[in-house]
Write a structure and sequence with these properties.
Length: about 100
């Protein structure tokens, strides 16, 4: 069956199309993609321990794949999402208070 393994970096996305056997797991597909040329910069992500997903939903390493699945390799967040929201809210609050004066 055909599946894709995808890793997105800030500047580009890496995609490897694979033909795998029934019973292949998400982590096995990633290992096959690495063997077939998935270019994974070691400083950007630890492929062997990175969390995985299928079409945007987190899965365990031994999740069985189905034909057409897109296995996604997730990289660590650059910044805490809660902190980003606080910063945006503070910025918006300052912008609105200036406008009211």
């Amino acid at each position: 069956m055909k599946v894709s393994v995808v890793m997105a970096l800030p500047v580009r996305q890496h995609v490897v199309e694979l033909e795998v056997a029934e019973g292949c797991t998400a982590r096995q597909a990633v290992e096959l993609a690495l063997a077939q040329g998935l270019d994974a910069p070691s400083e950007a992500i630890d492929i062997n321990n990175a969390p995985l997903g299928i079409y945007g939903e987190r899965v365990v390493d031994d999740a069985l794949l189905h034909a057409g699945d897109r296995v996604e390799i997730y990289r660590p967040l650059q910044q805490d999402p809660m902190e980003l929201r606080r910063q945006r809210a503070a910025s918006e609050s300052r912008r609105l208070s200036v406008r009211r004066k």
